[in-house]
């Protein structure tokens, strides 16, 4: 279970597959968590969350269990310990 799931943030299929724990697609990554715009509009719901839901399997993945990618490159290359130069 050391292999990370790869998520392309700009990919429609990936955006469909991965949701916040409440099933929304409007999330975005923050430095160590995720944030959901749809949850932010619901009173009494915390818009910040730690685990993304994979709609294909129903499993939850923590921030460290996924690799986030954008068209410009890895989103969190500063977090995985390489590429500092
Ligand atoms: Zn949500």
Short description:
By secondary structure, the protein is mainly beta.
Could you explain how this protein is built, in words?
- With 85 residues, the protein is mainly beta.
- The protein has one domain (5-72).
- It is built from two helices and nine strands; from the N terminus they run βαβββαβββββ.
- It has a three-stranded mixed beta sheet, with no helix packed on it. A three-stranded antiparallel beta sheet has the order 2-6-7. A three-stranded antiparallel beta sheet has the order 3-4-5.
- Strand 3 (27-29) and strand 4 (34-36) form a beta hairpin.
- The chain is globular.
- The model has no long low-confidence stretch (mean pLDDT 89).
- It binds zinc ion.
- The site of zinc ion has 6 residues, from helix 2.
Please give a handful of descriptors for the protein shown:
2 helices, binds zinc ion, mainly beta, 85 residues, three-stranded antiparallel beta sheet
């Amino acid at each position: 279970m050391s292999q990370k799931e790869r998520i392309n943030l700009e990919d429609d299929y990936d955006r469909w597959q991965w949701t916040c724990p409440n099933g929304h697609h409007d999330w975005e990554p923050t430095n160590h968590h995720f944030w959901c715009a749809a949850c932010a509009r619901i009173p009494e719901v915390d818009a910040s969350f730690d685990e993304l839901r994979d709609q294909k399997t129903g499993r939850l993945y923590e921030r460290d269990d996924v690799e986030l990618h954008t068209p410009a490159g890895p989103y969190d290359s500063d977090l995985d310990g390489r590429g500092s130069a």
